[in-house]
Design a protein that fits this description.
By secondary structure, this protein is an all-beta fold. Helices cover 3% and strands 40% of the residues. A hairpin with a 2-residue loop joins strand 6 and strand 7.
Length: 210
């Protein structure tokens, strides 16, 4: 558990957890059923998504990327597609996705990105601040993964997520990039309750809790 969920700001102590539980009951009967009720479809039984989703496919114009082409592309792993960026090489290869924050509350910044055999390595920045390590998007097959970047209390205002190409995996065929979304994931209620990091400057010391 991250320290900002603990009253003493500790991560190695005993902690009470906050979890969501669900249950299911099965009815077994021989003969003709005596009622016609049925369970809702799985799509109606999903837990609510706690993410604010900024769809990357909306930002394909030249204003949002460096040298190369960016298009919206449909893939089986994404029902609504993703942004596929094809730079000509490492030089001047970058992508930007803007978003706006309305309320100051604890969030986790993360990216849902595509991995493939011809994808490159990228460094993430938020409003010019370097976040975590290099993201290697190479994979021998096409897949999707969440990349977690930052836990912070963003001030209301405009933000810009930037991904800059820093090379490629030696076995990768190119420097391409695929991204489904930028996401702001709401932290658990205790983070808001304890408010340990509310006044900390994430620009000077960006933090990603384990």
């Amino acid at each position: 558990m991250s320290p900002d969920e603990n009253p003493k700001y500790e991560s190695n102590s005993w902690n009470e957890r906050e979890d969501d539980y669900s249950s299911v009951a099965f009815w077994y009967q021989t003969g003709e059923p005596t009622f016609k009720a049925s369970a809702p479809h799985a799509r109606q039984r999903r837990l609510p998504n706690l993410d604010r989703i900024i769809a990357a496919r909306e930002y394909t114009t030249d204003d949002y990327h460096g040298r190369g082409q960016a298009v919206a592309q449909n893939l089986d792993v994404y029902p609504d597609g993703h942004l596929f960026y094809r730079p000509e090489g490492q030089d001047d290869a970058w992508l930007e996705i803007p978003f706006e924050v309305e309320n100051k509350e604890p969030q986790r910044l993360l990216l849902v990105m595509t991995r493939s055999y011809d994808y490159g390595r990228y460094q993430a920045y938020l409003n010019g601040v370097k976040l975590v390590g290099v993201i290697d998007l190479y994979s021998s097959d096409i897949s999707t993964r969440e990349y977690h970047l930052l836990d912070f209390w963003p001030e209301p205002g405009k933000y810009k997520l930037r991904l800059e190409c820093v090379g490629k995996n030696p076995v990768s065929g190119s420097y391409y990039l695929g991204i489904e979304s930028v996401r702001l994931r709401r932290r658990r209620p205790r983070v808001s309750q304890y408010r340990h990091d509310v006044d900390k400057n994430w620009r000077k010391n960006p933090v990603l809790h384990d």
